[in-house]
Amino acid sequence: MNNSGVQLKLVLLGDSAVGKSSIVLRFCKNQFSDEAEPTIGASFINHDLELEESEVKLQIWDTAGQERFHSLAPMYYRGAKGAVIVYDVTNNESFERAKDWVKEIQEKGSQNAKIALVGNKIDLDEYRVETEVAEKYATENGLLFFEASAKTGIGISEIFVGLSKVLPKTPIEDDLNSSELSSDEVVNLEENDLPKKKSGGCC
User: Fold this and answer.
1) What PROSITE patterns has UniProt attached to this entry (predicted)?
2) Is residue 102 part of a domain?
3) Angle at 167 between CA 163 and CA 169, to 5 degrees
């Protein structure tokens, strides 16, 4: 490797129940639960990722999707070099809300932040958001585009590897300060049990 010791802060955004927490859990721990409760506020987990050219420490922030927590989102995407905006392929309304998140990150997020648009739950048959429609929107807005299933694991690693490859690499000591929050504001997934999810699922 030509580089090592770099950190990337990523934030996941999207409606409640689109599967943000399940995506993080599948990527970081290769696990999935049908009984995860909604995220409250935000949580984060650190995950080491080896790319061909560098070793990267990802700091992944998983934010609450409920509207009542929307006002807290800027606190969590501040300083993020990348945003993973998730929608449910079986729920067209979640795709429209994803567009709102794209606009917000482009207008208020970190300068030059890269955005990955992710359609989750492709293991289900009830498609409401056609791949061609979402991909066209992503292309027109300069976004990376992925479809995935947190339940089966299909396409999950590609999201984080693909996004990490296009982000500038910053030495860890230069980047940590932009991510500092008090312990009252976050829950570290590394220190908690697997999330329990109510019916309706974030697969």
Assistant:
1) ARF, RAB, RAS, RHO
2) yes
3) 130
Residue 38 banded pLDDT, cuts 50, 70, 90: low
Cα distance between residue 187 and residue 193, in whole Å: 11
Strand intervals (E) in 15-99: 42-50, 54-63, 82-88
Nearest-angstrom CA–CA distance, 76 and 11: 7
- Look up the domain containing 46 and give its range: 3-169
- Let me know if residue 181 belongs to a domain: no
CATH of the domain at 14: 3.40.50.300
List all residues 6 or more positions away from 188 whose beta carbon is below 8 Å from its beta carbon: 43, 44, 45
The SS3 call for residue 115 is strand
Number of structural domains (the chain) is 1
Classify residue 84 by its DSSP letter. E
Asked if residue 126 belongs to a domain, the reply is yes
**Tokens describing residue 130:** 């056609």
Residue 84, domain member (yes or no): yes
The answer to whether 138 and 132 have CB atoms below 8 angstroms apart is no
Say whether pLDDT at 197 is over 60. no
* Beta strands at 144-147 and 114-120: parallel, antiparallel or unpaired: parallel
Q: Report the C-alpha gap between 133 and 15 in whole angstroms.
A: 19
Percent of the chain with pLDDT over 90: 63
Q: Which amino acid is at 145?
A: F
Candidates 5, 1, 35, 19; CA nearest to 154 is: 19
